[in-house]
Amino acid sequence: MRFSLLALIGCCSLVLACSSVNIQKDASIAEDENDNYSDEISLDDLVPEENKKKDEPSETTFFDGLEDQYKDELVPEQWSWCPSEDDFVGEDWEWTLLVANSALYCVFCDESGVFRPDSLEKEWARKAQLKIVSGQYPVPSINGEYSFRLPVCLKSHEPNQQPLLAEPGWIHAEHVTNQGKTTVALEFQQALYTSNGEKWNLLGKIYGPLAPEQKTIRIDGNYTSPNTGDGMTIIWKLCPGDCGPERDSLAFASCHFQGVSGYKHLVSFQGGKIDLYLRIGELNIVAGNQPALFNHAVGELDHEGFDQLDYWKLVFTGGPQHYFVRHFLVLFDRPIGESCGIKVENLDIWDELPPARVAIVRCDLGEIEERQVIQESWEDLP
Q1: Has residue 15 been placed in a domain?
Q2: Position 7 in a domain
Q3: In terms of domains, do 248 and 315 share one?
Q4: Predicted confidence (pLDDT) at residue 26 exceeds the cutoff of 50
Q5: Contact 233, 8 (CB under 8 A)
Q6: Separation between Cα atoms, residue 37 and residue 367, nearest integer Å
Q7: Residue whose C-alpha is closest to residue 188's, from 200, 201, 203
């Protein structure tokens, strides 16, 4: 049953537990249920072909040039299967969604489940990006429900099985104007299908204040706080079938979290060290989740350095309770010896057990060996 966004916004006094999403679709990269990985898998097999890029030293810091790392993701050649602005379905409404070319959103981690030995592998498999096709799209200013289809496209680890735009769905408007101030509330849903006929549904919610005489709502991929009342908050979710339990869906958020404070974990271990940079957004009461983005890892393994900024090669999960315990997987641009990456698990900001754990992994994500942790710490970044 569709719910009222405004009713939920008005219930902020309730104490809400943080919940998130966990797709039930089998996203395991193992060849069978026993995770018997093939030794023939290479590092390049772990990244969609169109996402591969040349190995170049990065001078990008945690806070500088974050938008630049996504510019290659936004060129038309990288999204050749996307629909066009002409695939929009709607009416000649008064208000307009102005979608910038930078409107790219990334799946953030599942924070609802208990951490298990294969949690990072499953987190890697559920990674996806959502692009809203740039253009100008009318949206209803008058409350009601209407036929609607917004041109969107998705990228995942399985390029031939990405859900594609299908028949129109609906958009529901439930705006409120009080003393000359308008609060926008738009909710929409539309179907997508894979090439083998598997159905998915994209759900979108847009809510926030509209200035007097304002008729344009901008969608640009930036992070917006759901709690300050400044600007529009935008929620995207993708779920299989007709959208059953909440845990079946994938939640998207900004791919760069500009302006959001950060956290830096520093870990030294036998044969190396690693710094892990993480951004955690605010709890979104309407969406019922708290987005997080692991966007940078830099370090050294066996005297060889690495510096990773690629979304597809940075994996994070935090489990329940607001990411108090954090787990990371970093894949290298090229192997270091036999290793294609590093797992860093159990980084607890309260220093509780179990202790931190580091392991180097093969290109199929199977562990090669565990490395003894020498020291770990963390710090806030403004």
Answers
A1: no
A2: no
A3: no
A4: no
A5: no
A6: 11
A7: 203
Instruction: Give the model confidence (pLDDT) of 146-163 as tens digits.
Output: 999 999 999 998 777 789
Same domain flag for 111 and 209: yes
106: nearest Cα among 54, 49, 66, 135: 66
Residue 54 has pLDDT above 50, yes or no: no
Mean pLDDT for the chain overall: 80
Contact 236, 202 (CB under 8 A): yes
- CB contact at 8 A, 331 and 340: yes
| DSSP assignment string, 159-182 | GGG--EE-S-EEEEE--EEETTEE
Domain extent, residue 321, equals 262-381
315 pLDDT more than 50: yes
State how beta strands 104-107 and 250-254 pair: antiparallel
Q: Specify the pTM.
A: 0.79
Query: Which residues, listed in sequence order, are joined to residue 52 by a DSSP beta bridge?
Result: none
Q: Which residues of 223-232 are buried (b: 16+ CB within 10 A; e: fewer)?
A: bbebeeeeeb
Number of domains in the chain: 2
- Are the beta carbons of 172 and 188 closer than 8 angstroms? yes
- Is 236 among the domain residues? yes
CA–CA distance from 16 to each of 169, 194, 283, 287, 339 (Å)? 30, 35, 9, 11, 42
DSSP state of 86: G
Q: Are 251 and 289 in contact (CB under 8 A)?
A: yes
Please name the residues in contact with 374: beta carbons below 8 A apart, sequence gap of 6 or more.
268, 269, 270
| Residues 172/191, Cβ–Cβ less than 8 Å | no
Q: Which residues of 165-185 are buried (b: 16+ CB within 10 A; e: fewer)?
A: beebbebbbbbeeeeeebbbb
Is residue 168 domain-shared with residue 238, that is, in the same domain? yes
Best CA proximity match to 321, nearest among 168, 135, 115 = 115
Instruction: Say yes or no: 177 and 286 in one domain.
Output: no
Residue 54 lies in a domain: no
Q: Which of 254, 285, 320 is the last residue of a domain?
A: 254
Alpha-carbon separation of residue 225 from 1, 207, 222, 260, 284 (angstroms): 26, 11, 10, 9, 8
- Token code pair at residue 91: 């009416």
Q: Are residues 122 and 242 in the same domain?
A: yes
**Of 225, 254, 283, which residue constitutes the final position of a domain?**
254
Same domain, 233 and 267: no
